[in-house]
């Protein structure tokens, strides 16, 4: 009887509000394209009246507006699988999405007092922490308990990034590393699983020391950066993470993936994270200080941007009841993100490197929206709930 009532309740909802990944993935993809176009216009000297703009706005929107929305959408959706409890739908999901959208508009328009979008954005992350935390605690799933402080940290960092000018750069860097760290955790769970499942192979047993060492080193790097410990320490921790990720990647059967866009896109994005840690080691230890900007964009564009595109493409297919078959031009979208990352890392921004990077991003996420936006706004193809 309860299943029938749940089914009838869901049928009364627009498909967009039936699972958190739907509005969060859609909003994040659309907003990333809008924000990058506004940022490029400003860099090219095109005046955009009333828009706040600036490097702080650009960094904030890509970290908290784009990546933050996907993190929240992924976590609150996956909670249903992890805990067996229904994911947020209907009014709670509408409220969560409204907080995110209102914060984006508040930050965008300079006429809005800054405190207002800060409060809205903090509310967004804290509400997500409550939605996820209630489910984790209800079933005592301690393995995922770290997600509650992670979401609370997003709220605190979002406020610090705007309201504490002296800590602005540190807040942005910690957030970048926090998102990267979450990718190392969840990527380590799903990439080897997806790869083994696709080729009907047994998943290799994880080496506990390798996995725990990776997670502890991520936390150590976050603390070292957050408390502004000496930069060489950051560098050596980054090197340790690079080596740990190299071993993990090698055990995920990378030789099998090249005919499967939904797999090679995941693996390649993860390798950009390895590259980022190696470049960060060289920059932060003083061996090659000029590589710091490239390292940060290896994380931001290649690692986070590429991983998000690869992951939301696969998750959208699976959670809308479709076969895991890549749409025809999506390999081009994944390749465009690789090109965008390479251009932003190795091509001087003062030349056309930035333009190439932005165009690659717009092509990648534009193709995602072309193929997947209709899926996100339609009922599941298999008629099931979600």
UniProtKB/TrEMBL annotation:
Pfam families linked: NnrS
Protein name as catalogued: Uncharacterized protein involved in response to NO
Tree of life domain: Bacteria
Transmembrane portions of the chain: 21-42, 62-81, 93-109, 115-133, 145-164, 170-195, 207-227, 233-250, 262-284, 296-317, 329-347, 353-371
UniProt cross-references to InterPro entries, sorted A to Z: NnrS
Source organism of the structure: Microbulbifer donghaiensis
Keywords carried by this UniProt record: Membrane, Transmembrane, Transmembrane helix
